[in-house]
Design brief:
By secondary structure, the chain is an all-alpha fold. Helices cover 51% and strands 0% of the residues.
């Protein structure tokens, strides 16, 4: 599915929707940790930007902006996924 137009938003929200538009495969391979998979049936981080959900969710915005910036730095989708899991996923207590 397509995403909402980045131009509808401003600031980091616009950047997050731009990420979803420009790097959809990367976001589709990344999990979202706001629990929208359970509450909204989302399948990946990309799903958050197919509607207005991503507009008001700091976790979704943060993950998407991180992915966008990391891809611009040359990281591959699997590396970006690992960083999202590390930074946003459940914290282990070792």
């Amino acid at each position: 599915r397509g995403t909402l137009a980045p131009e509808l938003f401003a600031g980091n929200v616009q950047l997050a929707y731009r990420a979803a538009k420009e790097i959809p495969q990367t976001l589709a391979q990344s999990p979202c940790y706001c629990h929208c998979d359970k509450s909204k049936g989302h399948k990946s981080l990309h799903s958050c930007f197919e509607d207005e959900h991503g507009e008001n969710c700091g976790i979704c915005i943060g993950e998407a902006v991180m992915a966008y910036n990391l891809q611009r730095q040359g990281l591959r989708a699997n590396q970006i996924r690992e960083r999202i899991i590390r930074d946003y996923g459940p914290k282990r207590s070792d």
